[in-house]
Structures
1.
Amino acid sequence: MKKLLSVLLAAVVLATACLSLASCGGEKTDYTVGICQLMVHDSLDQATNGFKDALTEALTAAGKTVSFDTQVAGEAELCTTVINTFTAKNVNLIMANATPALTAAATATTTIPVLGTSVTDYESTFAGAIPANVSGTSDAVPFDEQAKMMIDTLGLVAGDKVGVIYCTGESNSLIQYEAVKALFEAEGIVVEAYTFSETTELQTLTTSAADECKAIYVPSDNTVAANDTIVGTICNEKNVPVYTSYGGAICYASLAIDYYELGRETGKMAAEVLLGTKTVADLEVKTLTPTVVYNNELCAALGIEVPEN
């Protein structure tokens, strides 16, 4: 009997302890945030890291805790699967990193707050009607300044041809292509789109673009960015300068934002929503001021003079 009572007492103590722990594995967190990142590459990785850091800092300062369920979809079609796991768990907030992740989240829920990051144009993505539970940060940059930067640094003139490489599965890229196309053509510069749907097409496509164009423009296209060493290697071998909207090692120059800071701004917005100081509907989409960066080594190899200022 004494042995039985000891066993029962131990069970009660264990059960009581488990009530104060999350599944007997640690303290229960105040909030759970689901993060759907389209794919692995530096810009998106930095945005996710910045989001986590800023949100954790803000909630810790408020005496709260947060746990993250971070999932990388790998491709656009799988974003819906990832988002559905978040809605099934009824997470407190969803962070959607890239446009396909954002559209999947907005389609899946109208009640869970959704914040996007690394998204170029929210208005176009939602045809001018952004859902009430959706806001976030945009990686849009002044396309006119990017075009002027290429024209000035490369000495482009009427009749020169610029190739724009992007994936047809990314709506962000089409928006940027149409913007820079109009800007270049206003100066008499010929613009051609070199598009692909599968990454296996990128090498052949880039070779054609480098053979036919004086320069290459790459928008903030996640698929190209994840494979941009292919573009950089081919274009460098052919002495064709590459300009990207997102920065990176392959471009001779860029007017781009810091994606870690973009993620931090999204994290600060998430803290406001979770702590109840603002609703998503109160939050306007934020952008960052881009900075100019030159790759001095690449400019020297291509014979491009870096402006003193």
Note: Residues 1-25 have pLDDT under 50 and may be disordered.
2.
Amino acid sequence: MKSFPMFIKTTDRKVVVVGGGEQAAQKTRLLLKTDALIHIVAPELDDELQNLADAGCITQVPELTAEIFADAAMAFIATGCPPLDVSAHAVAKSVNCPVNVVDRPELCDLTTPALVDRDPIVIAIGSEGTSPVLTREIKTRLETQLPQNLGALAALAGRLRVSVARRIAQEDRRPFWAWVFKGEPRKMWEQGKERDASAMIKDAIASGAVPDTTTGGRVSLVGAGPGARDLMTLRAVQRLQEADVIYYDRLVDEEVLELARRDAERVFVGKHVGAHAWPQDQINRVIVAEAKKGRAVVRLKSGDPGIFGRAGEELDALNGAGIPVDIVPGVTAASAGAAAFGQPLTERGVSDTLVITTGRARDDAPTPDATRMIAPGTTAAYYMSVGEAARICADLTAHGVPADALVKVAMDVSKASEKLATCTLGTLEATLADMNCTGCAVITVTWPQALDISPSQHHQGVA
């Protein structure tokens, strides 16, 4: 290493920023996360810095002198003027003040890393100036993996350390903190149940005993989104990182599975339209059985578990067995498809109602009436309906939908194999054939409102 990573205390210590413009404001925003005494050296401040000075958050020093640096923990030179930056650097170094000069690494004693801030947990990432793009990528990955409220749990632990020292035997303290940060309190905290987790920790301290760390199993029904892994929610990624075993469908992309913990067991259950490698009742049985072993189970579904994801049947089985379960929603195909087209699903003056429906049903159920909610001013998103396109077109036409109604087909949306097509109701079958689309697609049909509006009004979305 050419630089030694460390944290510098800022409590009751002065930090100097030279400059009154945007570069100085950027450094000041970072320093405001600390409890440093911030001094800004500049004859004039931009509006942001002036407001901070007026509020007493920073102290303005009009003139640059060596004295201002004499007792400072560090200084940032950020005037935006290269010659002035060099001069300020020389003044600071004359009294041996550690310095960071913006965009001048050869003049820097200190460099500012990329930060993942979960105060008081702070992760600093640096590359000694060699790969800033890589450090930002690492920061992004960590941001997705660490819950925003994690720092508050660490802060609570800090406030309770004296109580733990008084009530928990010394040999039991490490297991106690392992339970707090790896056991049920941590899980509850990350699920947003901070008050319950706090009460659990305090009750354990009051009892003076380390809780039983044997935890029961749980199941998460997780939406993987339409395919692209960067459309996964942060909560979905967290559940994958926690999982002992993952049951996933055919439509879940391999890149999504790469977000899981490396040693998690992955089980392909093969469900897709018209073919089921595993019957639903078998899936219900195995996720219940695995949870009863005390394992963290993720049932990973494409899209959103609550939209044609058969979540209801799995919830019934889990609730009946007394297994804790939560649902993590995902980006559904209709939303992803509209985004791929760069257009909304609803628009004032055109479509003020959105219907999500399907052309398929269970083998033992009647064909769903996918037209009953369709009316002027409606956009209908059809799932699992490519094979039923001819019947749906005939039903819609008989229902009064004009043959020139706008139709959009999003196939394998957000995946590398994505195909998009725009057509009319009358040409939908031919369009699907041209796309060689036989399965994984969402079809949206818009029956616009029968309103007399000008083209300019339509463009602006005026009803």
Note: Confidence is low (pLDDT under 50) at residues 452-463.
